[in-house]
Amino acid sequence: MKRFCGYLCLLLALSCGQLDIRTDPEGQASAPPAQDKGTAFVFDETALPRLTVKVSLAEWNRLLEAFDRDQNTREYIHCDAVFVKDGERFAVSDAGLRLKGQTSRRRPEGKEGQQHVAGAKNWHHCHFGLNFRHFHKGDKDYDLRGVHRINLKYAKEDPTYIREKYCADLLRRFGVWTAMEVSYCRLYLHVEGDAEAAYYGVYQMMEAIDGEFFENRPQFACDTGFLWKGIWGSNLRDRDDWRFGVGRKSDGGEYPYELKQGEEDFTTAKAQLKDFIRNLNNLKGTQFEQWLKAHCDVDLLLRTYAVFVAVGHWDDYWNDMNNTYFYFDSRDVSDYRFYMIPFDMDNTLGTTIRCGAQSDALYQDPYRWGLDECVLMPKVLAIKEFRQKYTEYLKALGAADSPFSYSASLARIRPWQELIQDHLVNDTGEDQVIKDSPASWSQHKEYRVTTDCPANWFRVKSALLRDL
Fold first, then answer.
1. Assessment of whether the complete model's pTM goes beyond 0.85
2. N or C: at which end does the chain have fewer Cβ atoms within 10 angstroms?
């Protein structure tokens, strides 16, 4: 019955147009609304709410000390949070605050070994995770309008301030309903004893990938399935020594596949992931095609990768064996549907580097986007039906009336930048100007997003996709 309900939700989504590009009365593609009232209120792209995090001196110093011991610390500290939007004030007491980021993890204040000094302005931009229920598991009284977790991400190496927001928005417009919600806020940090809160500047608020994420999307047959986070090395190739785990490895490193939901049933989760990997690698021909159709939303996967190619998301599963969540919508070892959930899409739209199979994401062959050892996409595209559909989606993104076109993209980007541009000056002294350029380390610094020029990413990429 649960599986049937899942398929019914999918059919309803199709009939309602949720998996198609939506258009407004003027013909511009419009994104589906946030999944429920809570997320719609919190992740509102037309607003710039004020989020203040209040921490005691002892707790803040504990976070700094935790970072000094281990830069990959996942330790939470106690805090209070106040969210103000449209004149409404919402306060959540005793929430959990932690540092986030893979290679981008930073100390939020001062130098190693330093504790907080009241009045000193030695702040640094860093990514935070805010879990309103961390110390009160399951208690919805600690939610923020129905949202219990948000990730706070600064514009790391993105002078446009829009890359991650744009990619999530385009995914939803193109029918990828697994894309997260992303909006902006003004972030303040008030450490006990300071005369006033430190202004950290404009941050992206990002929907967390967790049980709430699956609850808010009825297209999933089950919201309590197994969720794995794939970091570098998670290529889904069948090997005898694949490492699976929960939390951190004993040597302090991280597993290529880490179970993030369903940890209490790790043995079953591991067996299920192994079942998927084994069949993905070993089945062939008609048997593989039938298994894939039964165990994967292939159309959704093809839509996702068509968008990845369009925006130049090279730091992904296929090319870099990285930055992917894998979700199985059942806890049955062999009866499940597999989903790839995109995230961490800031290295896009011209921020490109030699990595994996690529040297330039703008001109990379969409059919050889990444590494052969990342077996999923090469095997999917070896099937004629799926390759043709993938080509259709790539061409649709390159079309003149696509939401990816330069004019349609600029029409969305400009209001986002206008919303935040007067609020960028902050107490870290970092990332205070919007500039149309890729990251400083990008190996192709000529690409532009909002500037209409021969190296405009949207114009060049659209033409390439149209000509496939």
1. yes
2. N
